[in-house]
Amino acid sequence: MLLPSPRLDGCIHRAAGPLLKLECSSLNGCQTGLAKMTCGYLLPAKYVIHTVGPVVQGQLGANQEEELKNCYRNSLQVATETKLRSLAFPCISTGVFGYPAESAADVALGTIREFLDTNKDKWNEEIYLKKLPEYFLWDQSSVTCGNPFLLTLLRW
């Protein structure tokens, strides 16, 4: 579904204005794991990439993990195909959909890293790596526990 709800997507719809709802209603919904793009309307973003994450009730299954990976992969693919230069993600499925936050973070970061590694020619990772320390300040020695291999990964 791509229509507003009281959750995050509802906040996005309210901020974007009524034209977003109108455009979303013309897209015939969205299956779990797929992604569709609309204009951003009154949002500061020019576009919104919509995706539907898996619902978790009880134990987390491999199928739900794959569906969540597909949310990120397909969103990144839409962004790449439309030549977007930047992209921001919320924690997909971690609210009322019940996906465990830490597991979702692992899926998100791993899937994004994998996508960037296989699409180096389409995304400028150098800007990301340069800006990351400006927004996420940390002592690299404490994050890496003194492990030179992990420190090398952070500098990569």
Automatic annotation (TrEMBL):
Top-level taxon in the UniProt lineage: Eukaryota
MF GO annotations: ADP-ribosylglutamate hydrolase activity
GO CC, alphabetical: nucleoplasm
Coiled coil: none
Biological process terms in GO annotation: DNA damage response; peptidyl-glutamate ADP-deribosylation; purine nucleoside metabolic process
InterPro entries xref list: Macro_dom, Macro_dom-like
Domain Macro: 1-136
Protein's UniProt name: Macro domain-containing protein
Annotated source species: Hymenochirus boettgeri
